[in-house]
Amino acid sequence: MLGICCCFIIQLQAQNLGRRIVLNTKNQTEGKVESKTSETVDKAFNKMEEGVNNLFKKKDKSPEGQNESESEGQISDQNGMSSSGQSGELNPGGSSSPSLQTYSNFDFIPGERVIAFEDFSQDAVGDFPARWNTNSSGEVVTIDGLEGKWMVFADEGVLYPEFVEALPENCTIEFDLAVIKENAVLTKLMFIDENQSPNLLDAGNANSTIIELEPIVGNTAIFSFNANGDAVVENTKPQKQFFIPEGEEYTLVKVSIWKQKSRLRVYLNESKVWDIPRAFQAEGKYRFALGTATFFIENREFLMSNLRFAVGQPDTRSKLITDGKFITQGIVFDSGSASIKPESFGVLKEIASVLSENPSVNVHIIGHTDSDGDLSLNQSLSQKRAESVKSALLGQFGIDASRMSTEGKGESEPIADNGSPDGKAQNRRVEFIKK
User: Which residues form the OmpA-like domain (predicted)?
Assistant: First the structure.
């Protein structure tokens, strides 16, 4: 979503607009850019002159007919960026993403009901996304080696999803952040009082909480302000997730946020970065927005996709044991694959805990997909995903295989409209039925 970082100006023909591939770059500024976190809580952001192009050029179209699934029970070691479609290769020739076991201490559990999802699939490449608003500029792009569409924000400013109003007391927010070598921008994840001006131009500090991601220097920071605008939380620390290995030009970071009344937890990939008991004011009602701080250095950018808002902490035990059925969209897979993504660990661990504490309970695991793709392939894929969940519960948590049966229903039983990104996100799910 945010800023464009470039070292070379690339002439793009009209048909190439928004198609990007990382080039080798050299630093366009002398020395390191100093962290200026104290400047990032200003009441508004000054717009800078729109930057010229960036370090991307046209990518080749992916060949058709790629394999639609991985082998049964495989744990993810690639970065497909959506739950349906073809998986993309991250950093070709570089390192793969963490395994499920890497996330063994990951306790993030997505909300049980998806209230909004944004993958920009409904937007044309080159346009600012229709469901968003901004006081600056941005566009939808594609990135070589990654599936789907991404929002790039290439300027000083703020932007926010108009389709998400005041957040529930208990909710989760997740998205994929692409960090570009030497070109990343300081990004603000802002929880702002709902009574602030709708265009956020006059957003002050009162009843606000701001999380800063500063990949260029490898820091994160947090600031929280009460109703009087007084800082009640302020801290900065380094974060390893922003490190880009030698020889690679960019990396992906999974950002997960859990707001639970006044408590805030923030995760980058498998690590819990912040766990603040009183980050939010009890009387405050908050909206979510994003912002950048370029410090007037040209061509810094932020890119994001797969933004997911969900409400409510799943009561796994009650729903499975008492109600006899637990539905989750929190077990996610590599694109077009049965490989479980490592950020699913928290949900799998919760289910395994319930089954371990109730040894007489058996479950039927059912996989579901959205309607994208071929009907028969979706049916096969959903079956393999259900089998992967069974294999993970057996291999990672020791749940006896005899207690679990599997089934795939493909796209045949939607619970929401497949005509929207929000509905598709709800339909991509795994169900556990008590037997």
Answer: 317-435
